[in-house]
Specification:
CATH architecture of the largest domain: 3-Layer(aba) Sandwich
Largest sheet: 6 strands, parallel
Strand content: 15-25%
Strand order of the largest sheet: 7-8-6-9-10-11
Distance between the termini: 52 Å
CATH superfamily of the largest domain: Mur-like, catalytic domain
Radius of gyration: 23 Å
CATH class of the largest domain: Alpha Beta
Helix content: 25-40%
Length: 458
């Protein structure tokens, strides 16, 4: 539940020296997160300004209507605004290496995140979920499990609703998806249960090395809550702390939550207890079994009823743009996995198939080493159709291990695949790259794929 305003103000003062009478707060970034922070500060009576590097942030007009007296600086970061700030609340989309931010920190400004603000404002337990892949699925799964169990749950963070906007729900449990960008600026979360689902190369354009990226992910475990550990991932398994309460999950070996074959059928297991048949999980791919086990472990950590959790899993339909079946046309199944914006997500999707697929991939590789795609493409793909600005980079990395085709547009890519596919084949859009080189976002890319596929019916 949310605390009263006096208790919140005391918590903010104790943990960050944030005081509405003395602090000068600068909110950096006027997107959804920045707007949610502004609402929060306004309600608590803080003096603050807002800055955005864009000339016309999409939410600027709406912001002016809500808070017309708040100073707003756009069209670049004005260092004078940063110089007077005692605290910076920097949205995840803004790098902490921006010169104005670096100088402000050097001059004594403190970094606070919206996740920190939420943690200072609620008594209810928080479950925190991160990882390179699967975090949106696990977050949504766990939210559905909590609802099935009769809990008033707030679900958001990096997924959907900004964290601070969840406060209006006055929930008795908060389930947050957190990105590495959110975690690198968060210091007082202390989640009741937390997990890093997996680590694969992603966002190296911001974090530079996978070691640094893993370090930022690992900060989700700061505190005293239950650690939920994927023992199939060596980088995650190394994050275990000997004196912390830990629950493990695995799709390869026995763990606290795992898969076992009994009476010729696979089951999701907790210790020696059968939770449910794996066949009753309505999602494609082995990686979704791992997601289900992670959600079950997190639910166990915060006391959710096992029957309710399994009931939620049996009706869980998955997320848009994540292994989403678009259509079956002339015996060919078309699958939209546009949310696979990094290599690890594409690898997980491919490994979930028993038969070889026709793969559509490409976009902005974000500095990732595309050589990592080659082994799984060779094993799991009949052919690959490449799109986007780094198509040539991927083609070079694959080194003709499978037939490669290039397309100038999604419509062309789908037509090429339709010509290659035979009845019984699957065509999988799983780009292994970001989308912003050609599309508004991964949702737009997935929608364009679906539109092109359905265009085959005309």
């Amino acid at each position: 539940m949310s605390m009263n305003i006096d208790a919140i103000l005391q918590s903010l003062k104790n943990k960050f020296s944030l005081d509405p009478n003395y602090s000068k707060v600068l909110v950096v970034g006027l997107g959804d997160t920045g707007i949610s922070v502004a609402h929060y500060l306004y309600k608590l009576g803080f003096h603050f300004g807002v800055t955005d590097s864009r000339d016309k942030p999409p939410l600027k007009d709406a912001f002016f209507q809500m808070m017309p007296d708040t100073p707003v600086f756009t069209g670049g970061f004005d260092e004078s605004a940063f110089q007077v700030a005692t605290h910076l609340i920097v949205s995840p989309g803004v790098s902490l290496t921006e010169i104005a931010i670096v100088k402000a920190i050097a001059n004594g400004s403190r970094i606070v995140s919206d996740i920190d603000l939420l943690a200072c404002s609620v008594d209810a337990p928080i479950v925190a979920i991160t990882g390179s892949n699967g975090k949106s699925t696990v977050t949504t799964m766990l939210g559905e499990m909590a609802r099935f169990a009769g809990r008033n749950v707030g679900v958001g963070g990096n997924l959907g609703t900004p964290a601070l906007d969840l406060l209006v729900q006055d929930a008795d449990l908060y389930v947050l998806e957190l990105s590495s960008f959110q975690l690198e600026r968060t210091s007082v979360l202390n989640a009741a249960a937390a997990t890093v689902l997996n680590i694969s190369a992603d966002h190296l354009d911001r974090h530079e090395t996978i070691a640094r990226y893993a370090y930022e992910k690992e900060t989700i475990f700061k505190g005293t809550g239950v650690m939920v550990i994927n023992i199939d991932d060596p980088l995650v398994n190394d994050m275990r702390v000997s004196d912390r309460e830990t629950l493990t999950f695995s799709i390869k070996t026995k763990a606290d939550f795992y898969i076992d074959v009994q009476d010729n059928e696979e089951y999701l297991m907790q210790a020696n207890i059968r939770l449910m048949p794996l066949a009753e999980l309505p999602l494609e791919g082995r990686h979704n079994a791992a997601n289900a086990l992670a959600a079950l472990a997190l639910g166990k950590a915060v006391g959710l009823d096992p029957l309710a959790m399994c009931g939620a899993l049996k009706v869980f339909k998955g997320l848009e743009h994540r292994m989403q079946r678009v259509a079956e046309i002339k015996g060919v199944t078309w699958v939209n996995d546009s949310k696979a914006t990094n290599i690890g997500a594409c690898v997980a999707a491919l490994e979930g198939y028993q038969r070889k697929v026709i793969l559509i991939a490409g976009g902005d590789a974000k500095g990732a080493d595309m050589n990592e795609l080659s082994p799984v493409v060779k094993e799991k793909a009949k052919s690959i159709v490449l799109i986007g600005k780094d198509a040539g980079l991927i083609k070079q990395a694959l080194n003709d291990c499978v037939p490669v085709y290039e397309a100038k547009s999604m419509v062309q890519a789908v037509k090429i695949c339709a010509g290659l596919a035979e009845s019984g084949d699957s065509v999988l859009l799983s780009p292994a790259c970001a989308s912003l080189d050609q599309y508004k976002n991964y949702q737009d890319r997935g929608n364009q794929f679906a539109k092109a596929v359905l265009g085959l019916l005309k």
